[in-house]
Amino acid sequence: MLDLKLPDMAGQDILRWIKQQALPCGVIIVTNHGSVDTAVELMQQGADDFLEKPVSAERLRITIRNQLEHARLQNLVEDIQTNFERNTYQGFIGASLSMQNVYRIIDAAAPSKATVFITGESGTGKEVCAEAIHAKSPRSKQAFIALNCGAIPHDLMESEIFGHVKGAFTGASSERKGAASQADRGTLFLDEIGEMDLELQKKLLRFIQTGRYQKVGGSKEESVDIRFLCATNKDPLQEVAAGRFREDLYYRLHVVPLTLPPLRERGDDILTIATRFLHTYAEEEGKSFTQFTPEVEVVLRHYSWPGNVRQLQNVIRNVVVLHDGDTVHMKQLPPPLNGTLSDREIQSLSPAIYVAETIEPIAKVDNHTALDDLNIRPLADVERDTIQQAIEFCDGNVLRAAVLLQVSPSTLYRKKQVWETDEV
Fold it and tell me: Which residues contact 55 (CB under 8 A, 6 or more apart)?
């Protein structure tokens, strides 16, 4: 809120400076030295609104609320534009806001040598994330070595990381390079690092701190240049508290935390990913699938997906392998998805089905029929109810609601703003 007559300088000069600096704020001019010409000139210079003193509290409240709502809608539009620009990224598929945040962290962290600690449920794409960080880093032309610490027996894990010399243990018939040597000048990704035993964690800590190690059974110390990435599907702090993960190693590795969202929290990404899998597997299997029925889309969108993207991938492959056609129907889904929602629940979630079943055609109207008997409502009320139902169905995603209603997103934003202003 800016007055024009100030003791030390003119309000116009401050407005000009705000716009030159591109400060992220709205400007409301408040003055008793104004006129219509002044207001027009200030609006052209970038002011968002103009209030003449004395200003009533109600008028001021409405003006400020409108400015805040305008800023909120502008941010939504920017997020939508970002979503269109980043609906795929280095092996990831998805334009949800949670994934946009993942993409931004990868962009920021990849150029450095800092260790990235990736967490997320099983099947969320932790190795895809590690590969993306490597691909965006200056080490992208060097080796990317991934080790799953939960899949390798504990007594062989040290040899897998550091290698061994001939005769180091029974079966070591020749010298072998470990992941540390293979990843020199590149990236070493340690997946499920919480499964590593405590004694090896101690050796790993020293290796990360110094960049030096010894092969199993060897006496010569070797030096390498490695960028470390690690991941776990458990809460690392709980593992530290339980004594299963060394605290000093945790703080050494936990430089840049990155949490991958579960699939159930990624909104319309579910349908985007499912469609991509459907097209890919249909081509591989020589099938003709291209789309899902609306009922199947509702089920896919609202299922909890405990196995995340990996489970969705297996479900779509199952459908493509066992069935054929151009459209996936409910009966083709494997358990438990084919029993996830009843027909009535599906209809309650789908605006298209809801409208089809609840709006009955009027066969005949004569002059003696009372309007009340026809249950006729103002068109504006019907429109508002339909739009609100669509937005609720899409979990607040206005863009998705606009697609379902076949209207421009800007139309929905404009109508929402009018309704919310009327409620003030």
Answer: 30
